[in-house]
Amino acid sequence: MTPNKLAVIGGGLTGLTTAIRAAQKGYNVDLYESAPTLGGRTRSFFHTPTQTWVDNGPHLLIGVYQQTLALLTEVGASSFIQWQDTLTLPLWDMRRGHFALTTSSKLPFSMALIDAVLRMPQHGLKSLPSLIRLAISMKFTQQGTVSDWMNRQRICSPLQRDMIEVLCLGAMNEPMQSADAASFCYVLNEAFSKHIHARLGWFTQPLSQALIQPLEAYCQQLGIRIHTSSRIVQLTKNTDDCTLYTRHKQQVYDHIMMATSASIRNQLLGIEQSIETQSICNVHLWFKEKLQLEHPFIGGVDTYGQWFFDVSQQHHEHTGLSHLCVVISADQSKLSKQEKIGRVLKELQAITQQPTLKPIHHQMITVKDATHVVRSHATLTMPTCIMDACEQPQSGELPATIETAVLRGEEVARKLPNINL
Ligand SMILES: Cc1cc2nc3c(=O)[nH]c(=O)nc-3n(C[C@H](O)[C@H](O)[C@H](O)COP(=O)(O)OP(=O)(O)OC[C@H]3O[C@@H](n4cnc5c(N)ncnc54)[C@H](O)[C@@H]3O)c2cc1C
Fold first, then answer.
1. What is the pLDDT of residues 211-261, one digit of tens each?
2. What is the reported pTM?
3. From CA 310, how far away is CA 68, in angstroms rounded?
4. Are 53 and 314 within 8 A, CB to CB?
5. What domains appear along the chain, each with residue ranges and CATH number?
6. Whose CA is nearest to atom 7 of ligand 1?
7. Residue whose CA is closest, atom 51 of ligand 1?
8. What is the atom index within ligand 1 of the atom nearest the CA of 400?
9. Are β-strands 255-258 and 322-329 bridged in parallel, bridged antiparallel, or unpaired?
10. What is the spatial distance between Cα 332 and Cα 12, in angstroms, rounded to a whole number?
11. Is the CB of 261 under 6 A from ligand 1?
């Protein structure tokens, strides 16, 4: 008999994917999650004042998320994603108001992108040489930060401000001055290379319903035992297996899959390595007024809030209230909570042209370790029987996203020996 008792530590998207793929290979799987509910960074909570489920933070998908899409199709949840027909990036800034990078489906994508950029206000033909230099340089490995890359290629500032900066903060959750050029280049190539991939999508239900519950139900069908409110506090390596400890019990396993954050993994395995993460701050606001943004989400240019999500529109909510969420990516300001809410509210008042707009409820959620930044680091050697699926993107790899969580979960399960009964 091949030893087949396996534990997954962490019930986020990586852990759920790992558990599903390991169970499908015939492993006998226990999944441990320290929180009372599954989901990790893709979790929702019940907001009592409005009696609705609210996401930790809104999530956008890119058409290139093929593994996520395949997994959600397998669990019967792909209908909870709404995709754009073709790539549209709705934007707003104080001087130009609403404008967009909108590609046409009638042209080949590279032509459509050039046409879309040229039609944006303050661009025109003067952005064309920069766009061509950018497109050519995307084919080569890039060194340093995104700013270094842009400066090397003499990319004009309107193109940096209206496209590169917005996409960089959105995809890498890091400003151009520190984001890894090699990874960002990979994102641009992946996201824009194939016509069908070049679009954005969003969930039409809170993440708990659209993503986590379908995955949890599938786990149960596969016989995976899910232990929520079960924090792993210690892990010891024996000769051929490992022992996991929660506060109240211990259990021996043939294989352990780590699907926590990298810092928890390092704590449990006694690894000394500094971990660099970036925060995301989400300001949820509810208004009595009927309020609808021009698009389900809008990217801000030179704004404090980077993304303005119309959650009511995305979720087709009919609560009688308008729910908006402003995302402040890589927030490094020292502003107080009230000051942050005040600033994003001012921007929303300008975007909606309703200067007297006042929310009746608000909730600010700052996820301190929202994403692991992309950096070069030494590859870790894991003790035998422990496998690592934690987020820690290397320079040149895709940054931390839903898709990379699914990819890591699938990859680590693929490396498991086949069960030989
Ligand atoms: C606000 C926000 C917005 C985001 N927006 C986007 C977006 O628009 N698009 C996109 O693609 N990605 C986005 N991301 C990134 C994406 O959510 C993450 O990359 C992905 O969810 C990571 O999944 P994971 O399973 O690897 O980690 P996690 O979701 O962090 O899961 C790790 C789990 O391990 C559990 N755990 C920790 N310690 C223990 C222990 N000792 N014992 C047992 N369990 C433990 C944790 O409770 C957690 O549930 C966003 C993230 C945040 C926070």
1. 999 999 999 999 999 999 999 999 999 998 999 999 999 999 999 999 999
2. 0.96
3. 23
4. no
5. 5-61+205-276+374-414 (3.50.50.60), 105-193 (no CATH), 277-372 (3.90.660.20)
6. 59
7. 370
8. 19
9. unpaired
10. 26
11. yes
